[in-house]
Write a structure and sequence with these properties.
The chain is built from five helices and five strands, in the order ββαβαβααβα. It is α/β, with parallel strands linked by helices. About 30% of the residues are buried.
């Protein structure tokens, strides 16, 4: 299965819509897209996962690297609309809180920034 990645600017956020299987074979494609966005100064990213049917640890590591890079630049990474199987992987790995996850793209785009402790 292939992976498709599309981006859309929504206010100050970039929505990165991902579709297909996110695994060792396809994760580099998403990583390249993220690197391109970061090079262009786009550090506020929402990943729309509604069409991601599978995500392994390689895929999760792409999101963690994106979060680390955007954190360093004062940005943010949010995940939106993961299917049940992908959400379960995020929950089991403990990343559902670290990678702020929302039920919809609209909620992820409009969410308030968490207060700094």
């Amino acid at each position: 299965m292939s992976l498709t990645v599309q981006t859309e600017q929504r206010g100050d956020m970039v929505v990165v819509s991902v579709a297909g299987e996110l695994d060792m074979a396809t994760a580099p494609q998403l990583q390249d897209q993220i690197s391109d966005l970061l090079e262009k100064g786009r550090t506020r990213l929402v990943f729309d996962l509604a069409e991601v049917s599978f995500c392994d640890s390689t895929g999760l590591s792409v999101f963690v690297r994106a979060k680390n890079s955007t954190d360093d630049a004062g940005g943010v990474v949010r995940l939106a609309a993961p299917q049940r199987g992908v959400l379960r992987i995020l929950e089991v790995s403990g990343l559902v809180e670290v990678l702020h996850t929302y039920p919809s793209v609209d909620e992820a785009v409009t969410a308030e920034e968490p207060a700094l402790d």
